[in-house]
Specification:
Layout lengths: L5 E7 L2 E7 L9 H18 L18
Antiparallel strand pairs: 1-2
């Protein structure tokens, strides 16, 4: 039997995160544990693939020599 999804929206800075939760009554991990695992996996994937880097703001970092 498929449970209906719970949809949450959370804004952090200028990014809006939309999270759909499907709850399984006999799950092995809590919702908090699962969210933390997903975030850690995402950060590991991003760092391995050089997705996250220095922000491209058009401004030089403070104390730069240029």
């Amino acid at each position: 039997m498929q449970n209906a999804a719970i949809t949450l929206r959370k804004r952090i800075g200028s990014t809006v995160y939309i999270i759909k939760l499907y709850v399984k009554n006999d799950a092995a991990e809590t919702m908090d544990e699962k969210i933390m695992r997903l975030i850690k996996n995402d950060l590991n994937y991003s760092s391995k693939n050089d997705i996250i880097g220095i922000p491209q703001t058009g401004r030089l970092p403070e104390r730069s020599s240029s």
